[in-house]
Design goal:
Elements (H helix, E strand, L loop, with lengths): L7 E2 L9 H11 L2 E2 L3 H6 L3 H10 L7 E4 L19 E3 L3 E4 L2 E4 L2 E5 L7 E4 L8 E8 L2 E6 L11 E5 L6 E8 L4 E7 L18 E3 L3 H14 L3 E11 L3 E11 L7 H19 L25 H10 L6 E3 L10 H7 L33 E3 L18 H9 L26 E8 L2 H10 L8 E3 L2 H20 L7 H15 L7 E15 L4 E16 L4 H18 L7 H7 L7 E3 L3 H14 L6 H8 E3 L11 H17 L11 H7 L6 H10 L2 H24 L13 H24 L2
Parallel strand pairs: 1-2, 23-24
Antiparallel strand pairs: 3-11, 4-5, 5-6, 7-8, 7-11, 8-9, 9-10, 12-13, 12-15, 13-14, 15-16, 17-18, 19-22, 20-21, 21-22
Length: 750
Amino acid sequence: EGWPVVDALIAFHSGGYPLAKAEKYVELRKPFVLNDLAEQRTLMDRRKVYDRLESAGIDVPRHVYMSRDGYISTGSQGGDGSIPELVEYDDHIEINGVAIYKPFVEKPVNAEDHEIHIYYPTSAGGGYKKLFRKVGNRSSEFYPDINEVRREGSFIYEDFLETQGTDVKMYTVGPDYGHAEARKSPTLDGSVVRNPDGKELRFPVIPSLREKEIARRIVLVFKQYVCGFDLLRVEEGDSKLVPFCCDVNGFSFVKSSRKYYDDCAQLISEYVIAAIKPRSVPIFSALNPLMKTTANYYPETPKRATNFLRDTSGGTAHFRHPQLVGAGVDQEALSQASLPETGASPIRSVDLPSTLADGAPPVRDMSDQLSIEFGASRSRCPSVSSSVGENSTGQMSQLMGREKSGTHQEELRCVIAVIRHGDRTPKQKLKSKVKYPEILDFFHKYSSKSSRKDLKVKGKGPLSEFLDTINRIITGREKAGQKRMDPEMYKLHHMRDILVKWKFEGLNRKLQMKPQEWETILDEKKNVAKEVCTKVLLILKWGGNLTKLGEKQAITLGERLRKELYPDAPGGGILRLHSTFRHDLKIRTSDEGRVMKTAAAFAKGMLQLEGDLPPIVVSLVHKDSMHMLDPSGNKVVKQMLDKCKERIHVNLPRDYDFKEGSMIMRETAVGPSSLISLHTALKQIRNPRKVLHEIHEIIGELLTQLDEMLGSMGSHDEYGGEVSDETILYDVCICVSILLLNNIFPLLCV
């Protein structure tokens, strides 16, 4: 009661602001409030924001609530106030039976809590990234060894949407004005790019019609005339960008734009005056971006200009706002009401429905283009002349706008690069045909309904279980008296060593099981016959990982392309083009770990990113095994490859002397004599089968000698009681080098 009486009130929630007192003042004095105070409390709970956005037909990421405070959703989540059941797996979580797969986002429901986590799948390296309010030049940190979600508090879990590493922030001043800016997403590397003034570097973007409609609905639904919100532009289908709203911030301003502040001051003044003295403001200065009339299309050729003049005879172009189609609004009435000659008041954007309950269509279903109709109109709007005769030359010149010149500018529309992965460690595999009941039980547990399909295992849980299975088999065979050097036991120990060599995370191992033999048995529980596998080919693959050298190669290549193809320009070069979606970078790879990491390292150099690769893999690298350039999956190509493999398999193990053989025999084994380098190499090798046997024997001797040399190196006492891993590694390298020089190299130099 002691506060002064005002006609209009601008108030917004912030730390320490007495919002409750402001609400009581509004209830007492009834001033015009620019941003509704009660709705500002809605913005403090992210669940209420998502429920309200869904009611307005605005797309939000697929999500599920983990409410431990009894919240009952008014949107798609529903609920009865009980605490949901959360079950956590390696690469996904389930909340009341709803699965959210990694990568996913974990948001606190309290909008004032900005510690948001993003959890990454093991296929991308695992770990999680913590987002927070900018501290210096950092906005996020990556933790590679933590994969479990938080267990205290209420959270929203939602799908992580790929946006090519760019976020869009939009600022409104009323339902008819919006300013959009793009910035580098904090989910990439957590590094904040700033301009010379110390402000975060952002680039203006042109919002689409759907995004403008989202802005209009948010202003009206949340009753916040001055408002900011975050958009995620997601590519769906053939380069179709669909906007998703992931946050509504309430009272927000653009950080650095003089024009925006001038427009904002003008519009706020008009809204306040219109509320106090309605007759003082006949029309707002903000042009409605959703219902605009643009100039007619002027063709650039005389023939098209003639057809254009004929088709538009006596008519005008009616542009339809996409929401009005199917929303129950009379198009003809709208076209009449929008014309100043009719004397009727135009339909305002605030009069259009803004929620699904009021009849507004979902924003996704709206057209992103203004539709146009040419034809007869009842209006008296002036139109272009329909006569094309003696004076048509001047009219065509006016239509064409300018004389044709001898030169014109062209725009670079696209750059396509096909890049191979960087340097990698050797790819290795271990094959073994097994009939162990324990391994067959594992196969049937994780295979699909059909026992004839191959099984691939990469997950942490299944690999850990397979390791336990191998350990049980080894223990059982040792108790039965089998020795370690027995061929089967040796392979089992080798498998175990590979499985325990690294942590069960990332992209370093893959287990495949291919069924070989089957038999039909009687299922006693169901009393039906079923087919089970009795023998599998077990393939354990490891290696083939991107090395530090390969990562550096990819980063350097990205930097070179950025500097040579897109030299820095005053407007920002490639970085500005990517942020504004004018020339955004799209990366598609296979699902191999080394390929995805190479692509992420390339993007790191191309876009000047920092930090670890897993967040970049998830944000920018799109796995697209269905539309790759390689012919995998093509039956004709596979037949050709199989034919080549069969020829190699037949000729390589043959016991013959290549140098002494006839020309027909050589060409049958290798190919035409025009392959000079191949024929020359095989002449030096002479008998490939014999050389392979010699190499196999020498490697066996090398391993025996290496084992003896390592055993003779003695204990740590010889190093003074302490020894570092680097010292032991150095000694091992010396031993291996000596053995290679004495055994392998002389053979290869023959």
